[in-house]
Amino acid sequence: MGKRNSKPALEGDEKFMEKFSPGSTRYLRLWKKIHDFDGKLTESSCNNLVNKLKIEVASASDKEKPQKQLQLLEAMKWREQAEKRKRNIQKKQSRKQEKAALQAAILVKPDEETVGPSVGVRQMHRRQRRTQERQLRDEEQRQASPASSPTLGDAKVDPEGWVERHKQLVNSYGLNGWEIEQTLKKSLTYNFGRVKAGYTGRNCQGQILPTEDQALQAQLQLVHNAVKETWKRTPDYVKISQCRQKDNEDVFEFRARLEDTFKDHIQFLCDSGADRTVLRDRIPRVGPSKDKIMVHSANGQLNVSYFSKPLTVKDLNTGKQDNTQVVLCPECPVNILGQDLMTKLKISIVPTSRGMVATNIESVEDTLLAEGLEVHYYWSLDSPNPDPTETGKHLLHIAMEDSDQYHVTLRYKETPEPDVEYDKSINKLGPQKVTLSHLYMDRRGFAGCSAKLTPQAYKQFTVWDSVPHISLMKPEKADWKDVGQFVKRAVAITAWQQLPDGWSIDMERWSVYRKTLGWVVNATP
């Protein structure tokens, strides 16, 4: 049960005033009782209330006057809203009257009565348009007659093709900065803001740049690069993973299919004439580093390019990979796989019956050239060059001889026929660890390094008049196989005299010098 004097819920104008001005309804009961106020936002009732309260304020005592003044202020708020409502009602009524008068002025005639007058109206409009077109200023233009307008395609679907077609359009018509901007807006529409890259087509004075201006070409190149980067196609890894070599499929056919699969992502051109690998396309999350390089382009111009941050390049055929930096050069027409990665990934360009083919060094077919001479085979464990441990550099420094390749000869075949069975056993070895024990030199000019092989590799060693070694230097009239005989005799020496500089000399003939190494290097068959 509620109280007898509980306040009733507000409705209509009372609810509006309480929401508009909280507290403006607190005197509402008193006004209804004394001044017969109906609580409506009408101008007449609100004016009567305000006038009555003004009289009460004037005749009230000093004690009652503050209370009467508060009532007068609240009543004036009611009157203000009532006047505002009346003005809004009058505006709506005037708009309705204008609309009704306009509709009444339109005279609707039957179809047969409107044909003649409408023809005259159309002719009048036509004459007005001609007059306006003749009055156009020089910088204004009017729309030309419709003609065939081939599109540039969708940049979001084929960004590379879109860029090439846009370049052809600009070069064919010799467009200036303002005209190029119009083609970009026409083709890219609202996406132009995403790839604008600060393009203005004007110089710092606000003048439109001509078509051959270098500043305009630089601005346009930034837009093209932004298009390629914004809508760069991502590789289809599902499609790549499904590309497997079929049964009895030739390795070159499989490689061609695999290259077609990778064309959607990044495709490299093997170039044995390039020193460094060059990447034209950007790779997500791989940006440039602080390292720079001067690139000598085909036209003879020198440009500064940046190296990328270290990234991992992997050959899916062999599983070989290398963590390196590549040159970032968007101006390069293709991605180039240079000598640096071709060497580390064991990729070589070889001539075949099908032309020049990039393949793995391990799978290269034997190519022999002979001219009236017998062809001999030899098998060896090669020390990599360049080697991460710089084995060759140290050996060169110690032996004082310039040599490009270092190897341990395992077998030398006197007859020219190949040995297939020995080939299979050598290929099964795989990478080997070779220990370089001692470096030997004599006064005649021989220099060699004795090598200790693993048991598996030593089983393949068949040179009867030598020991496992690396040939470093020989006299001019001697053969390289004589170095092996020299190392074999030096290894057999047991009496050595230590010298102050770290070398030792044999105590029998005092002609052979030895230096202890103890290096362990990697070698591959």
From TrEMBL:
Domain Peptidase A2: 266-341
GO molecular function, one term: aspartic-type endopeptidase activity
Compositionally skewed regions (Basic and acidic residues) per UniProt: 130-142
Gene Ontology biological process terms in this record: proteolysis
Protein name: Peptidase A2 domain-containing protein
Disordered, as annotated region: 113-160
Keywords of this entry: Hydrolase
Domain of life: Eukaryota
Pfam families linked: RVP
